[in-house]
Amino acid sequence: xxxxxxxxxxxxxxxxxxxxxxxxxxxxxxxxxxxxxxxxxxxxxxxxxxxxxxxxxxxxxxxxxxxxxxxxxxxxxxxxxxxxxxxxxxxxxxxxxxxxxxxxxxxxxxxxxxxxxxxxx
Length: 121
Fold this sequence. Notes:
By secondary structure, this protein is of the alpha+beta class. The chain is 43% helix and 20% strand.
């Protein structure tokens, strides 16, 4: 099975691109994470991950939650989004508790399944 790597070319960094996702994109939510997405003109799947500073004061906690989301996305994107490539994603963690990788992966997987159903239907 081919793997997906999160590198600079797959990262959504531009402020204008991120604003476009929030302004004209659609939203899907799970119990801990929200997914904002919009169709892009690029032929790549670009992603951004965010954790709110108000709910998680320590930067180390925010960074750990982002690492968990990135790893869950990386492990599940190939199997769930094989034929979907030209979208921009922004994952936002809005839970107030520290959680395990299993819970984060479950939420990311359910978001990707919901996204796939919406796009392919």
